[in-house]
Design a protein that fits this description.
Layout (H helix, E strand, L loop, with lengths): L1 H16 L3 E5 L3 H13 L3 E4 L4 H10 L3 E3 L3 H7 L2 E4 L6 H5 L9 E4 L6 H8 L3 E6 L9 E6 L3 H9 L1 E5 L3 H10 L2 H18 L4 H15 L10 H7 L6 H11 L2 H16 L9 H5 L1
Helix pairs in contact: 1-7, 8-13, 9-10
Length: 283
């Protein structure tokens, strides 16, 4: 009972920190997902930039708490918090002319744009970085945030789980992990194709591959520092799982993943080094 009460207090405190008005400059896939998730889990009002008219209209039609501004400055003027989600190459052009105010919160969702640039363009607002994934639309995302600004953490806690990190370098290292998402889907598709090629019904193959990958990661959903090592170690000696691990390790699959993460990290730092790619490292 005491634990439940304490958790309730924490959740109430987090809710109180979510800004009452949230603007979006750059209404794309991720920012739309954020609006959808927050509309279902908070009392915030939302003001969207007009440029991506179709996505903005879809959100305004779906939720009474969403409106569309005449321009980007109108979004900034109307809101306590602004999510920046334009393409990274357009960030300076869009952000620099805008006038922000002291105490306002600016959260950049733009991959590869340094916090120092956001602070330079958006000062005197309080600025932070976040890296959400589409599951935030269903309040099931896990989002890294830096610096651990309380309002930013509270917003993404509403969208699933917020993981605050102390430094921008740690943020970039963790951000590299999001780039494994496409690789995971490609592995699932490889498994699906193998099943279909070997006579399994396509509907059964897709349903099972999608579901069983989700099932297999369930035990790692609240991982602590030793969780993943423990899960690998508990595979039965001489069993089929251990066999696949050994074969993949012998083939260099895990080392290859580390090389790709090194390569992605260099790109996130603004100077991609193609020599870090796995095929280059093996030569």
């Amino acid at each position: 009972m005491h634990h439940t009460y304490a958790l309730l207090i924490i959740l109430m405190a987090a809710s109180a920190l979510v800004p009452e008005s949230i603007g979006v400059v750059g209404v794309g896939t991720i920012s739309s997902a954020a609006v959808r998730g927050l509309c279902r889990s908070s009392n915030a009002q939302f003001v969207l930039s007009p440029r991506n008219a179709a996505k903005a209209k879809a959100l305004a039609d779906e939720f009474e708490t969403v409106s569309i501004a005449t321009d980007n400055q109108a979004v900034v003027d109307a809101c306590d918090c602004v999510l920046l989600a334009v393409l990274p190459g357009q960030a300076q052009q869009v952000c620099e002319p805008l006038q922000f105010r002291e105490g306002q919160l600016v959260i950049s969702l733009m991959a590869g744009v340094p916090l120092s640039d956001i602070q330079k363009w958006c000062g005197p607002a309080v600025c932070s970085l976040a890296c959400p994934l589409p599951a935030i639309a269903e309040n099931a995302g896990t989002t890294i945030v830096t610096p651990p600004e309380p309002r930013t953490v509270a917003i993404f806690q509403k969208l699933g789980t917020a993981v605050p990190v102390a430094t921008e370098d740690q943020f970039k290292r963790l951000q590299a992990m999001t780039c494994v998402m496409g690789d995971l889907y490609a592995r699932q598709k490889t498994a699906q194709d193998w099943l279909v090629t070997n006579g399994v019904d396509a509907t059964a193959a897709s349903a099972y591959v999608g579901g069983v990958f989700h099932t297999m990661t369930h035990d790692a959903r609240n991982a602590k520092p030793s969780t993943l090592s423990d899960l690998v170690a508990e595979q039965t000696p001489g069993g089929m799982n251990e066999m696949v691990i050994a074969e993949q390790r012998a083939d260099g699959a895990y080392a290859s993943l580390e090389h790709s993460l090194d390569s992605i990290y260099s790109r996130l730092c603004g100077a991609h080094d193609p020599s870090l790619a796995p095929a280059k490292r093996r030569k």
